Amino acid sequence: MMRRALDLARxxxxxxxxxxxxxxxxxxxxxxxxxxxxxxxxxxxxEVNALASVADPTLLPHSRVYVTLxxxxxxxxxxxxxxxxxxxxxxxxxxxxxxxxxxVAGKGIAKLEAAGIKVETGVLEPExxxxxxxxxxxxxxxxxxxxLKWAETADGYLAGPYFQSVAISGELARVAVHQWRAExxxxxVGTRTALHDNPHLNLRAWPGQNPIRVVIDKNLSxxxxxxxxxxxxxxxxxxxxxxxxxxxxxxxxxxxxxxLFPQILNNLHLRNVxxxxxxxxxxxLNSLLKDGLWDEIRVLxxxxxxxxxxSAPKLGLAGLREQRHIGADELLVFxxxxxx
Length: 340
Hints:
Layout: H1 2-10, E1 23-28, E2 31-37, H2 46-52, E3 64-69, H3 81-87, E4 92-97, H4 107-114, E5 118-120, H5 125-131, H6 133-141, E6 145-152, E7 157-159, H7 171-183, E8 186-189, H8 191-197, E9 212-216, E10 235-239, E11 249-253, H9 260-270, E12 275-278, H10 282-291, E13 296-301, E14 310-311, E15 320-326, E16 329-335
Parallel strand pairs: 3-4, 4-5, 6-12, 6-13, 8-9, 8-12, 9-10, 10-11
Antiparallel strand pairs: 1-2, 1-3, 7-14, 13-16, 15-16
Pathway: Cofactor biosynthesis; riboflavin biosynthesis; 5-amino-6-(D-ribitylamino)uracil from GTP: step 3/4; Cofactor biosynthesis; riboflavin biosynthesis; 5-amino-6-(D-ribitylamino)uracil from GTP: step 2/4
Cofactor: Zn(2+)
Domain CMP/dCMP-type deaminase: 1-120
């Protein structure tokens, strides 16, 4: 039943943010009588949708509710779910993960138990933490969840000589990249990638909400005619030079005396950005790798060879979580155990 609740929670990916992904299953004598998930930020929570789907509410006092995250205990955009469960007089609540948000953090469990509801916690806890890894990182580390992504050739290059842009991945892999963009709240590139590739950093091959574009342009050297400054989606430029915000493009001046990426991640945290997909070049990628400021790496390895060019970052096999093919390309997924 909890696995079903986790499956339901995943359906909110890209839409519930910055709220966590939550699924809920209501059972009576081992039979599912209601299901729901948090479909969209600002909308009803999973418990509300699941309880509303129960055809016979008279069964609720004898029901068991499975929910992937501790029911909220505070008034946000919606009333507390813990209060709703109490008002329905459910018999038992089974929880996957406790909520690290200080506004909840055990208060939801306490409300349920004070009302005489039996509570069990920690069911499939590791799976729940992985599902909501962005939310947990944001709450616990006070920074966004950082995903590094790059495509490399079989001989270890991610661009041609002098950063010449080269089509490395196949069509299926490119679709997967757009899906990843839909799943993360922001997407980041450095100056050189922005200059040479002139990317849109939007969704064209997958449905969903365009991510916030994050650009590093220390000296404001990027041409204003580039796609990143077209005003079609929210864009944040991190720089050392003053410039006024215009056309949906904001400029944040950083200190040259402090390390660059801690400042950027701290500012994104203040903006309530829970995750960022880094599609930068080797300078950005290697800096984040060196500082350990990453949580996940996704490498698309093509069977193509270039014979020379800009080298991709070098990785061993430490932290390898997943290895599979997307079309002709091999996907390698790594997790940073030191940051968990």
